[in-house]
Each structure stands twice: as structure tokens, then as C-alpha cells.
Amino acid sequence: MSDRVTIVTVAYNSSEVLRDLIASVPPSADLAIVDNGSHDIEALRVLCDRPGVRLIENGENLGFGTACNVGAQGSTRDFLFFLNPDARLRPDTLDRLCAAADRYPDASAFNPLIREPDGSTFFRRRSVLLPRSRWMPRGAPTEDREITLLSGAAIFARRSAFEAIGGFDEDIFLFHEDDDISLRLEARGPLMFIRDAVVIHGGGSTSGDRAEVAAFKARLMGQSRVQTTIKHGIPFARVRNLADAGLQAMNVMVLFSRRKRAKNWAFLRGVWDETFSRGKT
């Protein structure tokens, strides 16, 4: 059934971890790797020089959602599978997801079981865009079930549903784009968790982990937090985001960690900048 699937992954200095993903993809699947201006582009070109793999070079970092949309363009297959570059498939992952899509024809999108290298599982149960009443129980479900949120590490979506909502919101550069698309896909049909379809999450760093990088990501997260909470009508979004970010920045527990301190202050700056660039509440 893998010939029904286009896999899309976004690369940003990710050639080292992509090797395992590429090796795990069945030959009949269509794999689109979208590069967002990596410094290791030459290594990536060599890695992608094989049948069934398409390398799309953006030349610059357009953001995660935009790159996903670029990778999905032109696909004629039934399903789009958005995967992190440090993920790996099991031999039956795509078959099980396709079978689940046939089993649940009303569902718009699916999450497989995401397993970490140490055997533990990862499951997203809550979001700032969801009221507490819609948070999921702790821990990955033990059987197929409807869920309220998708993990962006492995989103398996019907192409028809993805195209109907216009794909990822390209105004969201990075972070919370999976929360946003979860809510929009759910409006087209239920979101389902598929227990017997497994993706191994590599856990490797794909773009660096220095204090400066952590701060850069945190600032983007702050901006995206404001964007998405306002977009989805969260009450008092600006005030709540500023309060949460301020409390994090002043947390005495991070005073002795340069990385955490830089990260929390950058998050506050991102929230502040995005809040006041959009006007007052």
C-alpha cells in the first residue's frame, strides 16, 4: 500500500539523521525531501540521489509549514505523511496506516504510535489551543481511538483533506503549526491514533543545540504562541501569553543555566514582539 503515500520531510542541516529515514522508506513510496537552506546541501544531494527520492531545494529557510506545503505540491497519491527527518519507519508502518485510513473512512488524519529509541512512547495530549476539557489522558492509548491533537513528528493525512484546508498556515514560521493544523483538519473529519502503526523517533538534533540556537527557537516559539492563540480565539491571549512568558523568564530555577536563561528570555521577547506588533488587546 505504500504506493498510495507521499512522504514529506523538511531538512535543515539534517543529512546525518536523514540517512536512516531514507533507508527505512519502501521503494514504492514517494519521498519528497524539502531543504530549507541547509549548509550541508552537498551531502544531502548525494544522499538523495536514488530512485523514489526527490530533493526540493528552497535555497533559504522558508519555515516548516511552507516547506511542507512545497513538498506536498503536485502529489497525486491518496495520502501525505509529514515526518520529522530523524524518524524511521518499520517495514509495515505505511501498510498499517493505509489500512487504518480505509478502516476509518471519515477520519481526516492519523498519528501512528511514536516510539523513542529507549522503547518509551511519545504522545501529545494537550495544547494551548485546547481547553482542559479536551486534553487527552496521560500516556499513549493502548488501542485505536479518536484524539484531539496530532503530533507534528508524524502526521498522516488524507491529501483531499489537507488540500481542502489549504495545507499548513504559512504565516506560522515554526512551532504550533501542528496544533493549528490539527484543529483545522478536525473540522474536516476526526483525528485518529493508530496503535499498531509505529514510527521510531530518532531523537537526534537536526539543527544544533547550543544556547544561541535554543534561544533562537524559543523566540520563534513565543511568536508562534501569540499568532496561534489569537488566530483560534483563545480568551485574553495576549495578556495570558505575556504573563506566562514573564513568569518563565523570572524563574529562579534557571538562573544558573545559561542555556535555560537564554531560552526563557528569548521566549519572552518573542511573545512581546509579536504581541505589540499586532496591536493592543
Automatic annotation (TrEMBL):
Superkingdom field: Bacteria
Keywords: Transferase
GO molecular function, one term: transferase activity
Annotated Pfam families: Glycos_transf_2 (PF00535)
Domain Glycosyltransferase 2-like: 6-165
Name the UniProt record assigns to this protein: Glycosyltransferase, GT2 family
